[in-house]
Structures are given as C-alpha cells and as structure tokens.
Amino acid sequence: MNNILKRTLLPSLIAASLAGVTLVPAKPAAADDQVLRDAGIGAVTNVVTGAIRGHGSVLGNAAKGGVTGAAVNGANGLRSTHNRRNRNLGQDIGVGAGASTVTGAVTGDGRHTLGNAIDGAAVGGAIHLLTNHK
Fold first, then answer.
1. Which of its termini does the chain have fewer beta carbons within 10 Å around, N or C?
2. Of 100, 95, 93, 94, which is closest to residue 125 (Cα–Cα)?
C-alpha cells in the first residue's frame, strides 16, 4: 500500500510544486540577510539534539538543522519589517518542526518522524530565543 501511494501521489505532488514555483511566483524570496546566522544556529542546535537522542550522524544532523534554520528565517521574512524584530515563538517552533520533518523524509530519515519534529521544534525555539528583538 505504501509503494502504491508513493507511486501515485509523489509525481502529482512534484508536478504541482513545479507548476506553483515556476509559473505562479506570488512573492519574491522571503529570506532576509540573516539567513546564514539562522542556518548556523539550526545546524548547531540539531547536532546537539541529535547527540542527546543518539540518532544520526553529526554531518547529517547539521545539514538538516541548517535547512530547518533557513526555513524558519524564510517564514519570518514573510512578516513586515517591524514584526521581524518581534518574532512569534509558536510560528518559529511550528515551522522548525515541519521543515525538519519534511527534510527528514526527503533525506531518507522518515522512520523517525517524531524525533525529526522534536529536533526541528528545538531549532525553531533556539532561533527564537537567540534572535528575538534583534
């Protein structure tokens, strides 16, 4: 059943994603000039959480954390200039958890979905704590 869903759902999802990205760009990229800072915070945080959980390699966890940090930055970049300095904790944690879960699925770490979500939530929380009001 799982293979049937992958074979029927994934091609449609990829085609819809490509059409949405290439044909209908609603807004320019939302990441701001601090994307490398957030990616670095995400990489370090995810390495630490991966070591605490005893899961994944340092390099794999750093890559997943960097992608998650960049996603948190991008979601925050969608907000107005004033609101970028006053980050939303729930949004940062939610985006971090979602991005880490998706990144884990793409990289083949889909067996640990809950752990990936927890790692991503930790990344979002760390970024929020370290960069709020800056």
1. N
2. 93
